Amino acid sequence: MVVPRVWKSVNGLIRSVAVCSIRTYLGFALRTTRWTFRIDPQSYLYLTSQEGRTAVVAFWHEVLPLTPALWWWAERQNPAVSLRVLVSRNSDGRVIADVVAPWRIWSIAGSSDTRGKSKGGAAAMRRMRASLLHGCLVAITPDGPCGPRRQTRRGAEALARFAGRPVIPMGASCSGIRLKSWDKMVLPLPFGRGVFVSGAPVWPAAVTDPEQETAVSLQTHLNTLMDQAAREEQPRTGEHSVVLRPRATCPSRVWKGLGVLLAPVLPLYLRWRQVKGKEVAGHVREKMGFPSCPRPRGKLLWFHAASVGEALSILPLVQACLRQKADINVLVTTGTVTASQIVAQRFVHDRVVHQFMPLDVPRWSQRFLDHWAPQVAIFTESELWPTVLGACHARNLPVVLVNGRMSASSFRLWCHLPGVARRMLEPFAWVSARTEEDALRLRSLGAVTQFMPGDLKTAAPALPVDEPELARLRAMIGARPVFVAASTHAGEEEQVARAADIVRQIHPDLLTIIVPRHPERGADIANGLNAAPRRAQNAVPTPDDAFWVCDTLGELGLFFRLASCVFIGNSLPGCHGGGHNPFEPARMDCAMATGPLIHNFEEAFQALRGSVQVVHDDRAMAAWVGQMLASPEERIRMGQQAQKVATVNETLPDDLAKQVLALVW
Hints:
Elements: H1 2-32, E1 34-38, H2 41-47, E2 56-58, H3 67-77, E3 82-87, H4 91-100, E4 106-109, H5 121-133, E5 136-140, H6 155-163, E6 167-174, E7 176-178, E8 186-188, E9 193-198, H7 211-231, E10 242-243, H8 253-262, H9 266-275, E11 299-304, H10 308-324, E12 328-334, H11 337-346, E13 352-356, H12 362-372, E14 376-380, H13 386-394, E15 399-404, H14 408-415, H15 418-425, E16 430-433, H16 436-445, E17 450-451, H17 467-477, E18 482-488, H18 493-503, E19 511-516, H19 522-527, E20 547-549, H20 556-562, E21 565-568, H21 583-586, E22 592-594, H22 602-607, E23 612-614, H23 618-630, H24 632-646, H25 652-661
Parallel strand pairs: 1-9, 2-5, 2-6, 3-4, 3-5, 11-12, 11-14, 12-13, 14-15, 15-16, 16-17, 18-19, 18-21, 19-20, 21-22, 22-23
Antiparallel strand pairs: 1-10, 6-9, 7-8
Helix pairs in contact: 1-4, 5-6, 10-11, 10-25, 12-13, 18-23
């Protein structure tokens, strides 16, 4: 048993060396050749996938080594172009597939069945048709894989008819040598000249028995184009030749190298975070790309949402995808513990799996993608990690960005790294920004394909609530007015407490509920409020308690429904600042106030202008709370106005889900 294993390892090593050597030589020869492209105007639209056009690209088997240059040219015209090439299932075909795969040329294995022996032709035909219908070009050699030379077989024509797409005939020639193979294959030489010539699109004839006529027509086209290419390698007067290279799939080699260097110490960092309570025991290895559960069978959508806000924003989109397509599964990844808890509470579905996102380390990202193998990756807001995105692009995995956010400060930062931003964003299948301003910034950085902008946070359903618990708390609180300070950060609770003390001079029965953004701070907050009761300890406020610290997760829907008015935290001077999502309380017609530091949600607050009061300190907050309690009509008006704005994009999740699912095949 040992000898066969050793022999297999030696064969594998020899094959790897051969593949690497062929790729190195071929890449060098093609990159140093000066190429001229003479493309029919109509064929240009198909070869560059303009407006989603796709076609069957046909060329003789002898010029197969030249065709990567054609794909590099097509990617220059449209970075979102996607390519598939038909190769045979034999060993030679698999070598070809491995040689070109790092250039984002993906193979479909199979060839025509012969002598009653199945060679995967029918399955390959179905996969090629699916590729064409889902926005990929498909390349095929009508005389491959074994000839006769320059004689078409019916595969290209049958595929075109099956998919309802045209055939683009291509001819090519370059400085090279002819091999003594059945097809007299051209091996390019470095520092030469080459030319690609395309014919007009050829549509399969819609007649009763069109095979013979169409085959001869395609064969004639290909031979004519080959003769023309052989005569015209030199550029014509006024015509420019170009030197091409494959598009880099790694957005930043510096960032990738940094990840490699830090990889040995990052496990220690993760363990330290676990000790600090910032990682979940038993799930730390997920951040190194190790899965903690098996992959669901079938098709898989991967959604990534870094933290709580992003996770809640994609909930309606996930639900829409599951509702529209019953045979897909969903993987949701998050970066924080609190976001994972929200997923566990809100994403309850037998087709949803949660994992932590691996850190942006090359080997860890590859391990993650190898195991989960999603059909589409959906990133949220500003989650742009160069290494994992590069790994997705290298696999030709469709990537989309929903609720895309690009703040002015982030935009200025990325403008200093335009190449990295372009290599990350150009290959995205599409981007849906939150606002027109975000869309403009993303487009200027390289997001060439965009879907209609819209904020998913205005399309989310109202936060859930435990109805029996709501009824119990309402009965317990009675007629007391309730002021909720939601998602507060360090430095804000003291100002909220001072504001509540001022209001109680006029409304002595006021109950102030403080909901810290990070529940682990609950004990310290309660101690600073004369040992106020904590919900994490199942304590409830008595009539004598002025404050109630609700240091739990996933219950904001409960507290917003109890509230007379709501202050949105992370917004007062003295804390980090940036604000939080105002649409959550707005959907429950809450009267709202915020501090001035709202740059993370500036567009949302701008949409709600007139419905949200800005307060700069404890006195201004106290004045606003007093006004809301004294004027119920004004409080109701502000709440209803905010609710109308917060529910304006109710159809957005279904529209985005259709676009996402169109990429699944």
